Structure formats: structure tokens, C-alpha cells
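Reopening this ticket.

The earlier resolution said the output was attached, but the attachment link was broken on my side. Pasting everything inline this time so it's all in one place.
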Amino acid sequence: MSLHRRVLSFHYTLRNPEGRILDTSRGGDPVIYLESAGMIIDGLEEALREAKPGDQLTVEVPPEKGYGHPDPAQVQPVPRDRIPVPGEIKIGDQYQTGPNPGDPLVRVVGVEDDQIMLDANHPMAGLVLTFEVEVMQARMARAEEINQGKPLPIED
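Inline output:
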């Protein structure tokens, strides 16, 4: 791992293969990340490796460098009484698996009698993702950022 890592800030718009916007940072704060810290998906990080402030890129990220391919083992039946959710459970519902914001999400993909089929694959697994990116700022990472594995804010 190189000691010559950078901290970059960028705005992005993420589109699915049909061109629908899935997410964007436009209208909010740019993303700030530390290179090689696992903060963004590999395919996007690779494309930003040589980027400079002012660069505008369109980056296509295949599943292998994004959220992977769906894993059938991540789709499991769960008895209804083990799901602590009151009321009706419908296909398409999503639930967090724990109390913390970083806990994984599961999606309901089937409901049959007292069995609920849950899919723990990332919702974007299997998709080719298109990012429209504008690099706002870039600077060399500080030693404390590299040691902590996270960036400090970029000052103007």
C-alpha cells in the first residue's frame, strides 16, 4: 500500500443499466474519500486514481468491480415468527438486520404461508453501474488519515 495516497472529493450521479438515477450527491455535500481505504467500490476507485480537480468522467463499473454477482446462498427462507416486524410483510419490503445504521439490509423476495424468503444480496449486485463523476478537490493524504483509514475534511 502506497504512502502516496490522496484524499479526493467528488460529486456523482449513479445510474442503472436502463439509465434511471439510483443515487446522486448533487444538491448536497460531495463525497470525500481516502484512496485505498475501501470507502468506495473498486471500479470507481480505479477510474479516479489519476483524476484531477475539474475532471468529469463517465465510469461504467461491472458487477465484478462493484457489488458482485447475486449469490443464491444469500436467499433464505425464514419462519414468519422469527421476523420482528408487526403487520403484513410484502414482497419488496426491506429490513435492517440489526439496530445499527451499518447493519445489512435484507429484501423480501417471497411470502408463502409462514415462510418469508429473504435476500441478503446487495440491491445493486449483478448490475453494471454508470457513474457520472466530477472531481472537486484532491490533495495528498496526511499521515493521521492513513493511520486512521479515513479522511479529514478538505478545506477550501
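Reporter confirms the inline version is readable. The chain has two domains: 6-67+125-148, 72-119. The chain has two helices and nine strands.
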